[in-house]
């Protein structure tokens, strides 16, 4: 299978966080559902799993949900809170003081103010639209699942011709293109897209075409099968960078 490697467990469960802005139940599920395994959080933040478990038991601040099999599942909001804790440790605080500060910020409803934004927020304003140009329908559907779990709108095409038509006629925020689509026309799609647009482009392939993809205008290259954590992290980073690039200077 050349789609996405099943190395990280992403499973939608009931929302964990109760302090998010009021919204529909469906939106809350997208924003706060537990989707990251403890292994995924360890890879994302570099915090050992045993440390996460110790913090959970000792401070009872960030308590993940559990899957049907009993595995810890962290929400995106909880990952942000862990990143906040990590930032405070880097600044010189002890773990107890960092968790105490988080509790204070959460009580005030302002804990995010101490963090540098890691990505564009998906719970405010229009959600980004991602065009997925993939040669394999199964891989496309699997990638779509992970992207929709993050709250993105996703459009799928299985050929370069409809991809280019959609890029011309719709507001696309990011293009993900399998370089082997349409018999290997993915590189040319990257080039043509870059010639007429500044949208972010991620190239993917089972072959090591990283240099070729970047030379064709791709902002990033991911080798298939895709690792979900790296895949989503790359998408987030490029969308956040794009949002910052197009934000008005006075904002």
Short description:
This protein is of the alpha/beta class and 251 residues long.
Can you give a write-up of this model?
The protein contains eleven helices and eight strands. Helix content is 47%, strand content 14%. The chain has 251 residues and is an alpha/beta fold. Strand 2 (65-66) and strand 3 form a beta hairpin. The model is unreliable at 6-31, 113-124 and 244-251 (pLDDT under 50). The strands form two sheets. It has a five-stranded parallel sheet, sandwiched between helices. Strands 1-3-2 form a three-stranded antiparallel sheet. It has two domains: 25-114, Multidrug-efflux Transporter Regulator, Chain: A, Domain 2, CATH 1.10.1660; 129-246, Response regulator (Rossmann fold, 3-Layer(aba) Sandwich). The chain has helices spanning 25-32, 38-45, 49-59, 76-90, 95-108, 137-149, 160-169, 181-184, 186-196, 210-215, 228-246, and strands spanning 34-37, 65-66, 72-75, 129-133, 153-157, 174-178, 200-205, 220-223. Helix 4 (76-90) packs across helix 5 (95-108). The relative contact order is 0.13.
Topology, please?
Layout lengths: L24 H8 L1 E4 H8 L3 H11 L5 E2 L5 E4 H15 L4 H14 L20 E5 L3 H13 L3 E5 L2 H10 L4 E5 L2 H4 L1 H11 L3 E6 L4 H6 L4 E4 L4 H19 L5
Parallel strand pairs: 4-5, 4-6, 6-7, 7-8
Antiparallel strand pairs: 1-3, 2-3
Helix pairs in contact: 4-5
């Amino acid at each position: 299978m050349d789609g996405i490697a099943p190395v990280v467990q992403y499973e939608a469960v009931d929302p964990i966080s109760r302090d998010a802005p009021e919204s529909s139940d469906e939106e809350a599920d997208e924003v706060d559902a537990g989707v990251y395994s403890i292994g995924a959080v360890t890879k994302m933040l570099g915090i050992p799993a045993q440390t996460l478990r110790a913090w959970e038991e000792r401070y009872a601040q960030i308590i993940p949900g559990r899957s049907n099999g009993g595995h810890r599942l962290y929400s995106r909001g909880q990952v942000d809170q862990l990143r906040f804790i990590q930032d405070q440790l880097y600044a010189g605080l002890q773990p107890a003081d960092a968790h105490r500060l988080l509790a204070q910020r959460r009580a005030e409803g302002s804990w995010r103010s101490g963090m540098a934004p890691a990505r564009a927020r998906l719970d405010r304003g229009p959600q980004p639209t991602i065009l997925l140009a993939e040669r394999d329908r199964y891989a496309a559907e699997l990638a779509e699942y992970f992207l929709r779990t993050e709250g993105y709108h996703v459009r799928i095409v299985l050929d370069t011709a409809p991809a280019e038509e959609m890029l011309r006629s719709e507001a696309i925020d990011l293009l993900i293109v399998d370089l082997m689509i349409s018999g290997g026309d993915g590189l040319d799609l990257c080039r043509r897209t870059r010639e007429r647009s500044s949208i972010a482009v991620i190239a993917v392939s089972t072959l090591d075409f990283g240099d070729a993809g970047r030379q064709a205008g791709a902002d990033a290259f991911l080798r298939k099968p895709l690792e979900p954590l790296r895949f989503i992290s790359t998408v987030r980073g490029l969308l956040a960078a794009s949002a910052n690039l197009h934000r008005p200077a006075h904002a």
